[in-house]
Structure formats: structure tokens, C-alpha cells
């Protein structure tokens, strides 16, 4: 009889989470290389190269692909003939593996999980608990699939109970543009069809563990209706022109995965869950002979070409920047920022709002006037790092604070990822402000531009504290200019027209 020991299982979970924190899978890298080679949109092509370059740096440096190291989800298929040698439940062992992985001093991962979600939202400080699913199957082995899902992509998950006569394709093509770019395309769409509401969502999540193989499927041709639907959706979603990071372009999805299950005659549940450009997941088996052995990917698969600052990029000294100069910046243009910026995410914005309401001054005499605010919660640094991976978070969560930040705190502009709401775009135009985006999925690359970092306010917020960063040639793209033009609106529209002409 197969015996799985507590230590082997915990060690395997820990190793898997460390592994996926810095290694992209080989199929993902191959798909991204293909997307880069065929991309015609200059901003999107630059974004893809940044992601590939940052991925390569993470693989060699063993540091996180993204600052948001995710909420852990584990699917376990337990053979009914195996036996456990443990004094803990399976869920308790999973959580111990998560705890050890996220507190590993050689590569600490950002703790993002908060308890009391409808109340105090207190950080658990070790990224536990995980979401664990266990099913009993025939056999005597343990099959384990581990994923670490970032909030930006998970927040774009959707479920719809369609009528049986409704079009699945129409629903998905209507939904994907509404997801915006907060899920960090290009990535993979997971789709669950059938069952019940909860089963459809599980099907969609499980489908994301499957290998990226749409190009092989297109060459071979479909053998069934689901394969036909995969190809149809892959082609039609990419024809939407959303592109990498929502900048407009040829590749929005690298693959579309679908799983289905029998459902009630009156029901047609459809779940959509996207995987972001971090795409962190792995599968391993245990048979009682020890902990999992995880083979490193072939590092020669990463492209030789790497992203570097280009002479054509506009260089901006933030320390001497005058507001009138921003009027010359055009949407889609790449800037290289140097100077001091401040960071603030959801919790820090709420604190700033409370200070205004209470007529209290900012702590430590910090001054937000004429500053750019970067929406980021970085990973803690190790060794000689100034800061750990520090990519942007989804900006539209801060939309409700934009009026306060522009008109009360007098900031110059904001740096984040993905689109802004129309009301926020109007505020940017009225205040002759600016919204810039850094590339989601290039966190390690971005962190190399940060030369100094210190917490200047709200240290109790952990990764959501306000930092002062001193940056040098930090790459960003103009997303909303002082005239209210938006790359996320114009880029998609432009590439839709291009693709429709083909």
C-alpha cells in the first residue's frame, strides 16, 4: 500500500509554490514568443517583450514573476488505496506548505490574503489559507495541481446562467471586452460549461491547468464540438483587438481552454476565468517514494532578445517636471521616468481620505503635490535588492479616489495597469493630469529601475504602505493623456478595424 507522509506532502507543496513563483512553463514561453513575433502593434509588442525579458530574469534570479504572488488553489486527486502518515488534515498540510513557501527567506513571496473579508480585512501575513479541493479516485497515487492566482485576473472571473437556447459564443465575446485589461493579457481563458453554478466555476479553474496547445489543435483540426468552440473563440476573441495589456494588437488570448459537465435541462451555466501573464501553475504526483521532483524548464527557450531602453523613448525627469510639459505626451508613447515617485494602493488611499475627513496632516511631513502615485504593493527585498518585484496593480480600483488625489492632494498623475473609467478619464482631462501604465507581468524588470526605496507612511499596512521610490529609466506607457485620450479605447478600436479588413 502506498503511504504518503506528512513531510513529503508539505515539502512538495512548498517546492511547487516556490517553483511557480519564478518559472513560467515552457508552453507559455513558446506561446508568448510566437505572439511577439507576429505582433504588429508597437506598444503591444514592446509590452510582450518586457514580459518575456522579466520572465527570463525571474527564471535566472529565482525571484517572483509578479509582485502579486497570488491566492493559492490546490486540486488533489487522492487514490482510494493510499494511506496517509500524518497527524493533520489534508487542508492543514496544504496550508503549512503555503506558509513555508511564502515565508522562505531566500525568496519571500508577498502575503496578500486577508481574513474577515467583509470587516477588518486583516492580512494573515503568511498567505494562508489556501483554497483546497479534494476528490477521491481509483488507484494508489496522489495527483496534485497547484496554482497561485493573482487578484487582477481572478477579479475578472464571471458566471452567467444562460438559457439553453442562448449562444455561448455571443456571451463570451460580449463579456471579454468588459473584463478590460486588468487581467493582464495576453493569457489563457478558462471556460466551464454545464453542471451547476459552482461546478461551472470549478471546471473553468481546472481547465487553466491544461497545456497551451491551440496552435497544434488548429493544425490537426477539431475532433469534437468543444475543440471547434475552442478554435472559434480563440480566433474571435483575438479579433476583438484588445491586445497585450489592452494596448490594442493581434494577441489577446494565447489559448482558450474548455471543460464541460452534464447539466439540468433548464440550465446552461457558463463560467469564464482568465489566467494572467504570470500563468502560475504546476502538477505533480506522489507515490510514497518521497517528495516531488520538479524539473526546471529549458532556459534556452526564452528569446535571446531582451527589452532595453530605446533612444526613441522620451526621458522624463520627475524632479523637475512642469505640468505644461505633459501636454506633449501622446497615448501609446513609451516614457522613461527618473526621479522620485510615491506609491499608494487601496488601503493607503482610504487612509488618505480619512486624514482629509478629519482635517489631519499627512504623516512625516510627506507632500504629494506634483508627484506621480504608483499603484503597487512590492515584494520584500532580499540580498542586495533595493525592493523586490514591483509591478503595477489594477488602477480602476482607485478610480473613486481620483478626484481627491488630483484636486485635494494636487498630484500630477498616476501609474498603474489597465484602463480607467470614463468619469476618471474626464477628471484627468479637467485637471490636465496624466495616467501612465507599467506592464503587468514585468514586475522584476520594473524593480530594476528602482534605485532607492523607503516606507514614508502607514507602515502598519505592510505591502500597502506608502513608499518613496527613486527610479531611473522606469518604462511606462502613456495610457490617458492630458486631453482625455485613452489608449485602451483608441488602441482596441484601431486594431478591431485592422483585423476586420483582413
Protein model, in words:
The chain is an alpha/beta fold and 502 residues long. The protein has a domain at 314-492: Fe-S hydro-lyase, tartrate dehydratase beta-type, catalytic domain (fumarase), CATH 3.20.130.10. The chain has 14 helices and 19 strands. The strands form five sheets. It has a five-stranded mixed β-barrel with strand order 14-15-16-17-19. The chain has a four-stranded mixed beta sheet with strand order 6-2-7-12. A four-stranded mixed beta sheet has the order 8-11-9-10. Helix 12 (422-430) links the parallel strand 16 (413-416) and strand 17. Helix 1 (6-22) packs across helix 4 (90-102). The longest helix is centred in the first third of the chain and has 20 residues, at 42-61.
Task: Detail the topology: elements first, then pairings.
Elements: E1 3-5, H1 6-22, H2 26-38, H3 42-61, E2 71-79, E3 83-85, H4 90-102, E4 114-115, E5 122-123, E6 131-137, E7 142-149, H5 151-154, E8 158-162, H6 168-178, E9 187-194, H7 197-207, H8 214-220, H9 225-238, E10 253-261, E11 268-275, E12 281-286, E13 314-317, E14 334-343, H10 346-357, E15 372-374, H11 402-408, E16 413-416, H12 422-430, E17 434-437, H13 443-447, E18 450-457, E19 466-480, H14 487-500
Parallel strand pairs: 1-3, 2-6, 9-10, 13-14, 14-15, 15-16, 16-17
Antiparallel strand pairs: 2-7, 4-5, 7-12, 8-11, 9-11, 14-19, 17-19, 18-19
Helix pairs in contact: 1-4, 2-3, 6-9
Amino acid at each position: 500500500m502506498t503511504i504518503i507522509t506528512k513531510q513529503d506532502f508539505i515539502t512538495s507543496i512548498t517546492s511547487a509554490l516556490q517553483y511557480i513563483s519564478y518559472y513560467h512553463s515552457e508552453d507559455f514561453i513558446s506561446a508568448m514568443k510566437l505572439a511577439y513575433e507576429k505582433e504588429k502593434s508597437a506598444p503591444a509588442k514592446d509590452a510582450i517583450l518586457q514580459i518575456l525579458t522579466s520572465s527570463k530574469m525571474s527564471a535566472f534570479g529565482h525571484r517572483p514573476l509578479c509582485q502579486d504572488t497570488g491566492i493559492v488553489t490546490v486540486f488533489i486527486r487522492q487514490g482510494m488505496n493510499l494511506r496517509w502518515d500524518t497527524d493533520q488534515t489534508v487542508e492543514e498540510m496544504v496550508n503549512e506548505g503555503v506558509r513555508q513557501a511564502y515565508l522562505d527567506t531566500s525568496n519571500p513571496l508577498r502575503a496578500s490574503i486577508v481574513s474577515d473579508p467583509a470587516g477588518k480585512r486583516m492580512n494573515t501575513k503568511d498567505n494562508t489559507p489556501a483554497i483546497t479541493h479534494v476528490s477521491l479516485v481509483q488507484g494508489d497515487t496522489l495527483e496534485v495541481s497547484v496554482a497561485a492566482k493573482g487578484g487582477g485576473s481572478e477579479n475578472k472571473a464571471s458566471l452567467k446562467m444562460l438559457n439553453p437556447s442562448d449562444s455561448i459564443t455571443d456571451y463570451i465575446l460580449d463579456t471579454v471586452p468588459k473584463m478590460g485589461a486588468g487581467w493582464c493579457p495576453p493569457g489563457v481563458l478558462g471556460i466551464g460549461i454545464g453542471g451547476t453554478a459552482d461546478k461551472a466555476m470549478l471546471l473553468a479553474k481546472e481547465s487553466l491547468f491544461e497545456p497551451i496547445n491551440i496552435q497544434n489543435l488548429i493544425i490537426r483540426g477539431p475532433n469534437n464540438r468543444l475543440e471547434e468552440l475552442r478554435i472559434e473563440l480563440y480566433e474571435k476573441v483575438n479579433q476583438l483587438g484588445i491586445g497585450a495589456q489592452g494596448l490594442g494588437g493581434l494577441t489577446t488570448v494565447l489559448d482558450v481552454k474548455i471543460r464541460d459537465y452534464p447539466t439540468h435541462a433548464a440550465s446552461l451555466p457558463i463560467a469564464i476565468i482568465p489566467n494572467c501573464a504570470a500563468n502560475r501553475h504546476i502538477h505533480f504526483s506522489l507515490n510514497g517514494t518521497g517528495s516531488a521532483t520538479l524539473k526546471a524548464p529549458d532556459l534556452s527557450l526564452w528569446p535571446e532578445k531582451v527589452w532595453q531602453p530605446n533612444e526613441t523613448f522620451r526621458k522624463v525627469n520627475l524632479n523637475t517636471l512642469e505640468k505644461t510639459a505633459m501636454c506633449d505626451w501622446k497615448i501609446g508613447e513609451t516614457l522613461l521616468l527618473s526621479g522620485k515617485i510615491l506609491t499608494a494602493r487601496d488601503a493607503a488611499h482610504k487612509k488618505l481620505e480619512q486624514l482629509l475627513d478629519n482635517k489631519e496632516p499627512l504623516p512625516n511631513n510627506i507632500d504629494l503635490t506634483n508627484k506621480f502615485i504608483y499603484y503597487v504593493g512590492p515584494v520584500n527585498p532580499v540580498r542586495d535588492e533595493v525592493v523586490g518585484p514591483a509591478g503595477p496593480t489594477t488602477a480602476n480600483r482607485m478610480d473613486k479616489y481620483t478626484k481627491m488625489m488630483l484636486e485635494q492632494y494636487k498630484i500630477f498623475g498616476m501609474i498603474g495597469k489597465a484602463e480607467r473609467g470614463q468619469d476618471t478619464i474626464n477628471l484627468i482631462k479637467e485637471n490636465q493630469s496624466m495616467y501612465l501604465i507599467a506592464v503587468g507581468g514585468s514586475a522584476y524588470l520594473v524593480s530594476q529601475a528602482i534605485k532607492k526605496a523607503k516606507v514614508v507612511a502607514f507602515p502598519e499596512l505592510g505591502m500597502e504602505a506608502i513608499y518613496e521610490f527613486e527610479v531611473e529609466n522606469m518604462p511606462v506607457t502613456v495610457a490617458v493623456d492630458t486631453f482625455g485620450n485613452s489608449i485602451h479605447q483608441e488602441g482596441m478600436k484601431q486594431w478591431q478595424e485592422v483585423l476586420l479588413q483582413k
